[in-house]
Write a structure and sequence with these properties.
It is a single chain. It is built from 18 helices and 20 strands. By secondary structure, it is an alpha+beta fold. The strands form five sheets. The protein has a five-stranded mixed β-sheet with strand order 1-3-10-5-6, with no helix packed on it. A four-stranded antiparallel β-sheet has the order 2-11-4-9, with no helix packed on it. Helix 5 (about 425-465) runs parallel beside helix 9 (about 535-555), helix 7 (about 495-520) runs antiparallel to helix 9 (about 535-555) and helix 16 (about 740-760) runs antiparallel to helix 18 (about 785-810).
C-alpha cells in the first residue's frame, strides 16, 4: 500500500513538471483555437493539457447579442471535475462539470450536461458595428484525460415581445433568461408564466440589467423579485423600478420539489450523490402583457366610493319620507293608547297551563303587569334627578334580598312578558349598554395599532427581499400602488368603513329622536314597545368599521400568520349581534360589556392557539372540543332558566349535589313528557346539536383554517338564533313592517351573492405559495377587482343590511304595551 501511494505521488509530480515545461515552451493554452458558432467541439483535458477557444463576432448598432454555452462530459468523478471559464469583455463566468446541486438534508444532485446564457454586451450607441470576442477555457486537475463536448450558439429569440407567447425548456443545470424592454407607452406589465406540468418545481425571477445574472438554484434569490412556481406564476413589473427601462426574466428549475409542496421520491432518500441529467426538464411558456393604466385606478376609486355613497343617498331619502309621514301623522292626531293596545290579535298569544308539580314559583299571568314598576311614570324618578356616570349598574334597591326573591318568582314564570324583564331603571340600563361602545373603541385602538405596524413590516420585507412567496396574493389581479403590492384588495374594504359610519349615523338619529321623546314624556316611548338602548348598536357600527380596517391590514400581506386579523372583529360582530338579539326581549338580564368582551378575548386566544397548535396536535382539538361542548351546555342552562339557575345550598356541604339531583329529577324525569319552557328547549336542543356537530367535525377532520372554523361556529349560531326569533315573532302574531321585510330580503340576497364570490378561491395559505398561485385568476370587475374584492363589497352591504334588520325588526311593537309583548 505504501509503495502504491509513493508511485501515485511520483506520477503526479511528473505530470506537474511536464505541464510546467509545456507552459514554458508555449503549449496549447497559449494558442486559442478559433471557434465557430453552432459547431460541436470534442476533446479531452487533464492536468497537463487545457484547451482555449476564441469566438469572435460582430455586433450591430442597437442590437443585443446573447450567447449560450453548452457543455457535456460523461465523467462522474467529483474529485476531478472539468472547469469551464468564459471570459468576456466585462466579466467572467465559470462552472464545473459535474455540476452539483444541494437539496434538503445535504442530499446532492449531479448533472453532466450544463448550458448557460452569457451576460449580453451592452448595445453600442454608435452607427458602426463593433467587433466582440469571448474566450472559453477548458481545464481539469485530473492526472488522466477527461472527455468533453462544447457548443456555443447565438440566441435569436433573446428579447421577449409584448403580447407574444414564447415557449422554451429549462432544467436545473440549464437555466434560461431573457431580456424585455418597456415600450414607450407602457408603464407596467404583467409577466405570465404557465406550464402543463406542476413539477419539477421552478422559480421565476425578475432582475435588473447587471452582470452576473443569478440563474442557479443557490443564487437566484440574491437579486430582484422572485416567485416559486408549479403550473402558473405572475409578476407585475413597473417601469419606475428599472431606470434602464429593461430587465431580465430568469427561469430556474429547482433540484427538488419540496419548496413547491412536492414530496421527495423514495428512490433518492439518503445522503447519496445522484446523477439526474435531463430528467427534470420543464416546458414553460412566458407572455408579457401590459398592465392597467393610471386611469383605471381612478375609475376604480370613484366606483368604490360612489357605490357606497349611494347607500347614504338612500338613507337620506328614507329618512325624509319618514319625516313627512311623521309630520302628517302628527297633524292628523296620533293613535290613542287604547287603540294601540288592540293592534295585537291577542294579549297573550302563547298560552298553556303550568305543569303540575312545578317548583319554580309561577304566578298568575295577570300579576305580570300589576304593581308599581320602575318603568312606570308613578315610580320613575323625577326628570331632573338623572344619575351621574359613577352610578352602579345595579341600584341599591335591586340588590336587596327581597328583590332577588322577586327575580326568582318573575323570571321562572312559564310565560314571560317584556314588562317582567324591563323593571330596572332605564338610565342605569342605558349606561350599562353604553359601556359596550366605549370598550370596543379602546379595544380597536389597542388591537389595530400593532397590527398596522406588523403588516407594514411584512410589506417592507417583501419589497426589500423581493421574495413574493411571503404573501399570498392573487398575482393575476394584484395592482400595486406606492409600497403596496395589491392596492385593489385594500381599496375594496372601504365599504365596511363607509357603511359602518353610515350605520352609526342612523343609530345616532334614532337615539336623538328617542331622547327628545323621553324629554317630552311621550307615553309611547315610556311604556310601549321594545325599550330603546343603543349602546350595542353603536358597538356594532364600530366593529363593522374596524372589520374593514383589519381586513385591509390583512390584505397588505395575506398569509397564514396574520389571518386572525381578518377574523377577530368578525367574531365580535357575530357575538354583538347575538347579544343585541337577546337584549331585545331581555333588557334586564343581558350580559355586561366586561363579561362579553372577556368572552371574545378567550375566543381570540383560542384562535391564536389554533393557529399555532391546530395543525396536527390531537391534544389541542380534544381540549377545544371539550371546552366547546361544556360552554354550550353552560350557556344553554343560563338561557333556559333566564339566569336564575343556581345549585348552591348554604345549609349543607352536600347541598350542591342534592340540588343538582332535584333539578335533574324535576326537569328530566317528572316533566319529561313536556318541558316547562318548550320554545326555549327546542331552540337549545337544536343549538346544542349544531355545536356538538361542529365539535365532532373539528375533532375528526382538524381543519387547518382554525380561524374560519371558529367563525363558522359563530355565524351558524347567529343564523339559528335569528331564524328562531323571526319564527317566534310571527308565531306571536307580530308583524313585519315593509322596511324590516325589505332588509331581510336584501340581507338574504346579498349574502347569497357574497358567499358565491367568497367560495371562488383565488389563493390559499393552507398550501405552498406555488400551489396557491395555481388558483390565481384574472380580474372580473373594471379590470381592477377580482372575485375576492367583490366579496368585500357584497359582504359589507350584507352586514349593513343585517344590522338594519336588528335595528328595525321590532318597529311594529312601538304602539304595543310592554305587558303584552311576549318574551322568547
Amino acid at each position: 500500500m505504501a509503495g502504491g501511494a509513493a508511485l501515485a505521488r511520483g506520477a503526479l509530480l511528473c505530470a506537474l513538471l511536464c505541464a510546467a515545461a509545456a507552459a514554458a515552451e508555449g503549449g496549447s493554452g497559449d494558442n486559442p483555437t478559433p471557434g465557430a458558432f453552432g459547431h460541436v467541439y470534442r476533446g479531452a483535458v487533464n492536468i497537463s493539457s487545457e484547451r482555449v477557444y476564441a469566438f469572435a463576432y460582430r455586433s450591430e448598432p442597437g442590437q443585443v447579442d446573447a450567447l449560450r454555452v453548452y457543455v457535456n462530459s460523461s465523467s462522474e468523478n467529483l474529485r476531478y471535475p472539468i472547469l469551464f471559464v468564459v471570459r468576456q469583455q466585462k466579466g467572467v463566468l465559470s462552472w464545473q462539470v459535474p455540476l452539483i446541486f444541494r437539496g434538503l438534508y445535504q442530499r446532492t444532485y449531479n448533472y453532466q450536461e450544463v448550458s448557460r446564457t452569457l451576460c449580453p454586451f451592452e448595445p453600442t450607441s454608435g452607427t458602426r458595428p463593433s467587433d466582440q470576442i469571448i474566450f472559453v477555457d477548458v481545464t481539469s486537475m485530473a492526472p488522466f484525460n477527461i472527455a468533453y463536448e462544447l457548443l456555443v450558439t447565438r440566441l435569436e429569440n433573446f428579447q421577449l415581445e409584448t403580447d407574444k407567447a414564447f415557449n422554451f425548456t429549462a432544467s436545473p443545470s440549464q437555466p434560461q433568461y431573457f431580456l424585455y424592454k418597456f415600450p414607450q407607452d407602457v408603464d407596467s406589465v404583467i409577466i405570465n408564466v404557465v406550464s402543463d406540468a406542476a413539477y419539477p418545481c421552478s422559480v421565476v425571477s425578475v432582475q435588473d440589467i447587471v452582470c452576473p445574472v443569478y440563474d442557479l438554484d443557490h443564487n437566484v434569490e440574491f437579486n430582484g423579485v422572485y416567485q416559486s412556481m408549479t403550473k402558473q406564476a405572475a409578476i407585475t413589473v413597473q417601469r419606475k423600478d428599472f431606470p434602464g427601462e429593461q430587465f431580465f426574466v430568469v427561469f430556474v428549475i429547482k433540484p427538488e420539489d419540496f419548496a413547491c409542496g412536492g414530496s421527495v421520491l423514495s428512490s433518492i432518500h439518503g445522503n447519496v450523490n445522484r446523477t439526474w441529467n435531463l430528467q427534470r426538464t420543464k416546458n414553460l411558456q412566458v407572455t408579457i402583457v401590459p398592465s392597467i393604466k393610471k386611469s383605471v385606478y381612478v375609475q376604480a376609486m370613484f366606483f368604490s366610493f360612489l357605490s357606497f355613497l349611494s347607500f347614504y343617498l338612500g338613507s337620506v331619502v328614507v329618512a325624509f319620507v319618514h319625516y313627512i309621514r311623521v309630520q302628517r301623522k302628527a297633524s292628523a292626531g296620533r293613535l290613542s293608547p287604547e287603540h294601540g293596545s288592540e293592534m295585537m290579535t291577542s294579549s297573550h298569544p302563547i298560552s298553556a297551563s303550568t305543569p303540575e308539580g312545578s317548583s319554580y314559583g309561577a304566578i298568575d299571568k295577570s300579576s305580570s303587569s300589576g304593581g308599581c314598576q320602575l318603568s312606570s311614570p308613578e315610580c320613575r324618578p323625577p326628570a331632573g334627578s338623572d344619575t351621574d356616570s359613577s352610578v352602579e349598574e345595579e341600584s341599591d334597591f335591586d340588590t336587596m334580598p327581597e328583590i332577588e326573591s322577586d327575580k326568582n318568582i318573575i323570571r321562572t314564570k312559564v310565560f314571560l312578558y317584556l314588562s317582567d324583564l324591563s323593571r330596572k331603571d332605564r338610565r342605569i340600563v342605558s349606561k350599562k349598554y353604553k359601556i359596550y361602545f366605549w370598550n370596543i373603541i379602546t379595544i380597536a385602538v389597542f388591537y389595530a395599532l400593532p397590527v398596522i405596524q406588523l403588516v407594514i413590516t411584512y410589506q417592507t420585507v417583501v419589497n426589500v427581499t423581493g421574495n413574493q412567496d411571503i404573501c399570498y396574493y392573487n398575482f393575476l389581479c394584484a395592482h400595486p400602488l406606492g409600497v403596496l403590492s395589491a392596492f385593489n384588495n385594500i381599496l375594496s374594504n372601504v365599504g365596511h368603513m363607509m357603511l359602518g359610519f353610515l350605520f352609526l349615523l342612523i343609530v345616532l338619529r334614532r337615539d336623538i329622536l328617542h331622547r327628545q321623546a323621553m324629554e317630552m314624556k311621550d307615553i309611547y316611548t315610556l311604556d310601549y314597545g321594545i325599550p330603546k338602548h343603543f349602546g350595542l348598536f353603536y358597538a356594532m357600527g364600530i366593529a363593522l368599521m374596524m372589520e374593514g380596517v383589519l381586513s385591509a391590514c390583512y390584505h397588505v400581506c395575506p398569509n397564514y400568520s396574520n389571518f386572525q386579523f381578518d377574523t377577530s372583529f368578525m367574531y365580535m360582530i357575530a357575538g354583538l349581534c347575538m347579544l343585541k338579539l337577546y337584549q331585545t326581549r331581555h333588557p334586564d338580564i343581558n350580559a355586561s360589556a366586561y363579561s362579553a368582551y372577556a368572552s371574545f378575548a378567550v375566543v381570540i386566544s383560542l384562535a391564536v392557539l389554533g393557529v399555532v397548535f391546530g395543525k396536527n396536535d390531537m391534544w389541542f382539538w380534544v381540549i377545544f372540543s371539550l371546552i366547546h361542548i361544556l360552554a354550550s351546555l353552560a350557556l344553554s342552562t343560563q338561557i333556559y332558566y333566564m339566569g336564575r339557575f343556581k345549585i348552591d345550598d348554604p345549609d349543607s356541604d352536600m347541598g350542591i349535589f342534592r340540588r343538582a339531583v332535584m333539578v335533574l329529577y324535576m326537569d328530566c324525569i317528572q316533566q319529561c313528557s313536556r318541558p316547562m319552557y318548550m320554545d326555549r328547549m327546542v331552540l337549545l336542543i337544536v343549538g346544542n346539536l349544531v355545536n356538538w356537530s361542529f365539535a365532532i367535525f373539528g375533532l375528526v377532520y382538524r381543519p387547518r383554517d382554525f380561524a374560519s372554523y371558529i367563525l363558522g361556529i359563530f355565524i351558524c349560531n347567529l343564523l339559528l338564533y335569528l331564524a328562531f326569533y323571526i319564527i317566534m315573532k310571527l308565531r306571536s302574531s307580530e308583524k313585519l313592517l315593509p322596511i324590516p321585510m325589505f332588509c331581510i330580503v336584501a340581507t338574504a340576497v346579498v349574502w347569497a351573492a357574497a358567499l358565491y364570490f367568497f367560495f371562488q378561491t383565488l389563493s390559499s395559505w393552507e398550501e405552498t405559495p406555488a400551489e396557491s398561485r395555481e388558483k390565481n385568476r384574472p380580474c372580473i370587475l373594471l379590470g381592477f377587482f377580482d372575485d375576492h374584492d367583490v366579496w368585500h363589497f357584497l359582504s359589507a352591504a350584507a352586514l349593513f343590511f343585517s344590522f338594519l334588520v336588528l335595528l328595525t325588526l321590532d318597529d311594529d311593537l312601538d304602539t304595543v304595551r310592554r305587558d303584552k309583548i311576549p318574551v322568547f
